[in-house]
Amino acid sequence: MSTVSTRPPEGRYGRSSDERADRTLKVVGGVLAVVLLAVIGWFGYHYVGQSKISGEVISFDASKDAVKVRLEVRKDAGARGYCTVRSQAEDGDEVGRADFRFDEDATRVDKVVTLRTTAPGTTAELLGCHAD
After folding, report:
1. Which residues, listed in sequence order, are joined to residue 130 by a DSSP beta bridge?
2. How far is CA 26 from the centre of its chain?
3. For residue 124, what are the contacts with CB-CB under 8 A and spacing of at least 6?
4. Residue 38 pLDDT > 80
5. Apex CA 127: angle with CA 48 and CA 109, to 5°?
6. What phi and psi, each to the nearest 5 degrees, are found at residue 102?
7. Does residue 110 have a pLDDT over 70?
8. CB-neighbour burial class of residue 2 (10 A; exposed 0-12, middle 13-18, buried 19+)
9. In angstroms, how far is CA 128 from the centroid of its own chain?
């Protein structure tokens, strides 16, 4: 016994609507992918490439009314700016926040700063660094 095919012969009636829809979806998907990559690249360039000063907390030592924070700051030569550091208590309340300036000409600055607190702080968090 043979099976009867319900499909039309190949190439006889042109493209089906499903093939046209697939092609349209592929084109739209490709365009959206390119746009998404361009947006990610633009944000990445402005976040990394335009940052003139950045830093990180290396260590901290908390006491009853202050937190000593060792910051490592990387910046462009001659760039001036500041870094904002905060400390929180054990219950999550903010007990101290201060800006520390970095005006040195060096591209890497390793400095210990003292953040005064209103209660015993348990953390030292770098909120960000900003160039002038």
Report:
1. 82
2. 31
3. 57, 60, 62, 67, 69, 85, 86, 87, 115
4. yes
5. 70
6. -135, 95
7. yes
8. exposed
9. 11
Helix (H, G, I), strand (E, B) or coil at 39: helix
Q: Can you count the helices (H) and strands (E) in the chain?
A: 1, 6
Place of tokens 């633009």: 42
pLDDT (0 to 100) of residue 16: 63
User: How many angstroms separate the CA atoms of 129 and 99, rounded?
Assistant: 9
45-97 pLDDT per residue, tens: 776 666 578 889 999 999 889 999 999 999 888 888 899 999 999 998 999 99
Residue 26: which H helix or E strand, with range? Answer: helix 17-44
Edge-first strand listing for the sheet containing 81-88: 94-102, 81-88, 125-131
Residues 17-34 pLDDT 10s:
677 778 889 999 999 999
Which of 67, 102, 112, 107 lies closest to 88 in space, CA to CA?
Answer: 67
Q: Which of 106, 112, 52 is nearest to 85 (CA)?
A: 112
- Who has greater pLDDT, 1 or 115? 115
